[in-house]
Amino acid sequence: MNIGEIARRAGVSRSTVSYALSGKRPVSEDTRRRIQQVVDELGYQPSASARALANGRTSTIGLVFPPAGNHYTGMQLDFIGSVVEAAAACDYDVLLSPSGVDSDRSFQRLLGERRVDGAILMEIRLEDDRADHLARLGFPSVAIGRTAHAEDGWFVGLDHTALAAACVHHLADLGHRRIAFVNRPEQLLRSGYESAHRGLDGFTKAAAERGLTVRTYCCGDDPASGQACLERILHDDPATTGLVTLNEAALGGLYRGLAHAGRHVPRDFSVTGVVANRWAETVTPQLTAADVPAAEMGRLAVDLLVERLGRPEAPPRHHLLVPPISLRASTGPAGA
Amino acid sequence: MNIGEIARRAGVSRSTVSYALSGKRPVSEDTRRRIQQVVDELGYQPSASARALANGRTSTIGLVFPPAGNHYTGMQLDFIGSVVEAAAACDYDVLLSPSGVDSDRSFQRLLGERRVDGAILMEIRLEDDRADHLARLGFPSVAIGRTAHAEDGWFVGLDHTALAAACVHHLADLGHRRIAFVNRPEQLLRSGYESAHRGLDGFTKAAAERGLTVRTYCCGDDPASGQACLERILHDDPATTGLVTLNEAALGGLYRGLAHAGRHVPRDFSVTGVVANRWAETVTPQLTAADVPAAEMGRLAVDLLVERLGRPEAPPRHHLLVPPISLRASTGPAGA
DNA sequence: TTGAAAGCGGTACCAT
DNA sequence: ATGGTACCGCTTTCAA
């Protein structure tokens, strides 16, 4: 059933039906009611494809994130959930595109076939070909994360440098002198993954500032890798008394490694880092950490994108968040 | 740039371009090459909206799941991830719809506006108005989960009754006589959420069969609720020596509650249940559990849907999975 | 082997 | 206040 059918039954023209429904032109109260009645009776809804073709807008936004391979981190998934809900609140649908690079078929479809009005990019790298590609095209998009030269772009990001530094200072203030850094997998670091780089950077600088002895590690995104990583840490320097991690998926494994090594948290060993609070609260003792406000970030990204879609010439805006460290139960004075 | 532009530059008609690209009609090798060259030069890709309008297919599938409110469980999110990737492998895009009931705007859009060719439904209830709605319309869909009368439908599900029963038998075999059941939140149970119902059912029947003393609890989807729930369990019956849970989000809290109560797992208390293996491996000691093969289920759902889309008259098919219990480290003999 | 043209289902301009 | 119609960009039938 199409708009012509409605027009016929209501005894008016197709354009009148269109206007009655969109309100873009005054329609006499009488005919409007008649049309509405037919519409209700038949449960008519205009075809999204036809409408998109006619007015050049799809009312859909694309959400681009790398294929997980094995599994997604909790943080990624929190982003997805919050983006979808925020978009629904604005009557936008969300099309998912598992694309890590701009050559992915799904990414090409999204843009080339004009399936979406704008895009939100997740898992940003410092040099990100997807972001560059979109910028070059002038395609409306917002990044969750911050590229190396993002000052003039649209994004919502976390100041990972500051967050990692804050974790170091927290441990240093508690008297820890020998600490480790547990990063995301080496492959992500090498490919220029933003949080891994900036986090490592912030950790290293802050530790140097405080004159700490440090070791840094990459670690797979799973508990088994976390456990193995912790064993290496204690093997490499048994005097280590604390660690900072960005790797929430490994967190459970890190704790398990500590337990196996007979180190009590937080009495013998302090753990902190940057993770979504869902994970911070899952482990025992609960993790003192800079909580990633994933839900808020997703919402902000949608708001930014909707704003940008509404005013194509608006100057770039962004949100750079620095959530505070939530004191929970996983850190304590060194050598207590 | 559109197909007309390509036609002009290649010196052929629009239909020839269309056929050259789709291969639905023979085109002389010579013109085909000429067209392809223009296409490559200009990076032409046909508009998805126009194509959808013309041939009535969107090459998009809808993924319907309830809005999270607070946050998604790991299992839900694993489903989403695997569905998206499986769909991408078949060159389908995935449109997300956060809809718990068939009156949700987003759900209406998906169907009414014909945005998708088919749909995958998550978080099935025994009586599910979304599933009924789709069935009535004859709209191609596949459920992840099994309604009360699903025998003749398209779905991929877990035999929660059998899984919960298996957990009970596992504990009973180890000599446990007084055990508890930690279900999903009461609101989900009341609304007829499938896994909560069938799981409770399987637990209750199996426990009766084995003559066990049981108590059943509903528990919020978060660590704090898990901890509170465990306190209630030990308060209600301090002699309880084991529990079965479907609530992965509460798992960390259950463990914490046990630790606080001074019960060592698995020496003093055994824990088991039905959860995604990511969670089972995160906690220490790792959870002996029936692992929910979320990734496989998402893939199967997509396969089923693609099959159904290809052959509209195909008879309903389904997969009812009964994953085995993975023995890890959270259960042990009673009173050891 | 190729072209012309009629849809697909809307929107919006130009008339009346 | 309403109607007629061109157009959005592609697919597919019909003709040549």
List the helices and strands and how they pair.
Two copies of one chain form a homodimer.
Chain A: H1 3-10, H2 14-22, H3 29-42, H4 48-55, E1 60-65, H5 74-89, E2 93-98, H6 105-112, E3 118-121, H7 129-137, E4 141-144, E5 155-158, H8 160-173, E6 178-183, H9 186-190, H10 194-209, E7 213-218, H11 223-236, E8 242-245, H12 251-260, E9 270-276, H13 277-280, E10 288-292, H14 294-310, E11 318-321, E12 325-326
Parallel strand pairs in A: 1-2, 1-3, 3-4, 4-5, 5-11, 6-7, 6-8, 8-9, 9-10
Antiparallel strand pairs in A: 10-12
Helix pairs in contact in A: 1-2, 1-3, 5-14, 8-10, 11-12
Chain A binds a DNA duplex (16 and 16 nucleotides) through residues 2-4, 12-16, 18-19, 22, 24-28, 31, 46-47, 49-56.
Compact overview of the structure:
Two copies of one chain form a homodimer. The mean pLDDT of chain A is 95.
Write a structural description.
Chains A, B: GO terms for molecular function: DNA-binding transcription factor activity; transcription cis-regulatory region binding. Chains A, B: Residues 1-55 form the HTH lacI-type domain. Two copies of one chain form a homodimer. By secondary structure, the first copy, chain A, is α/β, with parallel strands linked by helices. Chain A folds into three domains: 3-55, 434 Repressor (Amino-terminal Domain), CATH 1.10.260.40; 60-158 and 294-321, Response regulator (Rossmann fold), CATH 3.40.50.2300; 160-292, Rossmann fold, CATH 3.40.50.2300. Chain A is built from 14 helices and twelve strands. The longest helix of chain A is centred in the last third of the chain and has 17 residues, at 294-310. The mean pLDDT of chain A is 95. The interface between A and B is large, with 57 and 57 residues. Strand 2 of chain A pairs antiparallel with strand 2 of chain B, so a sheet runs across the interface.
